[in-house]
Amino acid sequence: MAVDQGEVYGLTTGVGALRTVDLDTRGTPTLRLWRSHAGGTGAALGDAEARATMLVRLHQLLRGGAGVTPDLTAGLARAVEAGAVPTLRDHGGLGTGDLTVLAQLGLTLAGELPWRSGGAPVVEPADTDGLGFLSSSAATIAVASLAVVRLADLLRAAEQVAALSHLALRGSVAAYDARVLAAKDDPFAAAVAARMRSLLDGPDGQQREPARLQDPFGLRALPQVHGAAEAAVAAAEQVLAGEIGASAENPLVPADDDHVLHHGQFMTQRLASVLDALRAALPPVLALSHARLSALLDARLTGLPAFLADGPSGSSGLMIAEYVAADLYARASTLSAPVTAGRTVLSLGLEEHASHSTWSARLCADLADLVPSLLACELVTAVRALRIAPDRALGAAAAGLLERCDWEHVAPDHVLGPELEAAAVVVRAGCARR
């Protein structure tokens, strides 16, 4: 990077509160910076997250705004192509740049830290590569991207699980009628309703006779609740695409000249906001799942034995599944609290704000880990109901999911753990891919 304009943050000066201090460029300033910022504490990113971090950072570097040397970019490209996986410990990200994670990645490329698996030729970074390489939220973007994809798939899985519950409860499809959804400008709810109709249609597209004039909200309000979550996913995907393709390094080195620009484009406030919104949209979806599970245990709504029990008087059946789902819902709710309301002041008060998108991304990943277990509670209950009354699912497209639920049907009271785990596997596999 050639610079003719005098002082440049991180190149001729220190960083953070040291921005007014002239940088001693003797020795290896890039490696000094990476060593001091590596942190190296906290849980290590998973292989997929670590690899995604490398890929996001490579894509950003190829935009040219970081001002790092071609040798460093090429070294990262070789590592990506070789399938190498670094150990990247994640403590230290605040949504203003994943300094600790990218410092560890830089030191791994430079041969000072070992690869967790695989490897790539050692890169000798130039003195001008230090801050330019670190100035990115690539790890946050990577974690968020993988989590959002998982959550999007789980939303579609939740629709299929809900469809089985709808069949078992002999629900009405009137709430999903295209004329109802056309009466309000809500394309996401309309799309959910259309998918539900396709899952619930009887043989030759015939509608089934409902058991009630109006269903509980767990069935009737599903398009509106799931539609809000679908809209939140779409917003998150749009913002993530922008972040992946951004040149947000500070300072920015425009490709058309050597004039360096100092700015705040690294602040991932919009990403933090949409991830908070996505997490806030998920508990209502899970609340409806819990509500449908409760309905399936109610003999007044199903016409089947209470708690779907089979055995001596007082048998509990699937009673405990409702408790497990309630616990998981409470845990999901705690993971959905917003992070954007917090404030962090750093570096002697000179960096007085942070977006906290990193925390929101990690919470999205934690939610994606938890959701399958909650949906599994509903799935096990719906499957039990439909095994008691199999005629209720005849001819429905949703019955395809029922066929994948191949765990043994044990009617008397027994330990439910193996069934719940098997159901979670089915949910994680993705009942429906977009």
TrEMBL record:
Protein name: Histidine ammonia-lyase
Gene3D superfamilies per record: Fumarase/aspartase (Central domain)
Highest taxon listed in the record's lineage: Bacteria
Keyword NAD part of the UniProt annotation: no
Manganese found in the keyword field: no
Annotated keywords: Lyase
Annotated organism of origin: Nocardioides luteus
Alphabetized InterPro entries for the sequence: Aromatic_Lyase, L-Aspartase-like
